[in-house]
Amino acid sequence: MRPVPRFGEPPWGGAFAWVTTKARPTARRGAQTSNASWSAPELLWPTVGHAEGETRLNAFDNALVAAGIGHWNLVKVTSIAPPGALVIDEPLAIEAGTLVPAVLAAVSSEKAGESICSCIGIGLSTNGPGMIMEHSGAGTAPQMEEIVGKMIREAMGRRGLRTDEIAVRSVTHTVERAGSCVAAVVLWWR
Q1: Would you tell me which CATH number, out of the four given (3.40.50.720, 3.50.20.10, 3.30.70.1560, 2.120.10.30), belongs to the domain 42-188?
Q2: Could you read off the pLDDT of 41-58 as tens digits, one per residue?
Q3: I need a surface site. Which of 52, 86, 94, 139 has the fewest CB within 10 A?
Q4: Distance between CA atoms of 106 and 68, rounded to whole angstroms?
Q5: Full DSSP string of 66-81
């Protein structure tokens, strides 16, 4: 019997362990597949960070740390915000090394003086799921925020969803040696 998960853990207990699995035979002798069930995340935490580093990779890692997500193993997911998910402002208390689903935008550069930006946006709807969109590159926060807002409205319109609210976070960085910006929405459970 599986123990009841603590607050703030995936509902299946631990880092992406399965809730229930029903082994079933496949065409190959002795081979089995799993029928696993997942639940939709209930929390959306938008965060941003920027940093310098000795290399582009170090700058990216330092930006993840600055955003408060550098101690998790991020699993990049696509852009659906589950219906009824709550957007929160406070960082999540998740154990280091945990596999954590996130929508992530990142840009790194070694071009001294270049202004780079990462932006993430969440479009919410009262009549269904929402959308999470991201964009990053050379440019300013207003430029990136306009692009992300358009992407959200188009994606929601394509799905027949009304856009009731859009929350956008962006971060800019002027590169000195090797710089990076990240913007992310972490999807988690209560």
Answers
A1: 3.50.20.10
A2: 999 999 999 999 999 999
A3: 86
A4: 14
A5: HTT-TTSEEEE--SEE
Read off the tokens for 10: 């995936």
**Rounded Cα gap, residues 75 and 157, in angstroms:** 27
Q: What are phi and psi of 135, to 5 degrees?
A: -155, 145
C-alpha closest to that of 170 among 115, 90, 93: 115
pTM across the whole model: 0.82
For residue range 104-158, list pLDDT tens digits in order. Answer: 999 999 999 999 999 999 999 998 999 999 999 999 999 999 999 999 999 999 9
Structure tokens at 157: 């319109």
Closest CA to 41 of 16, 70, 67, 65: 16
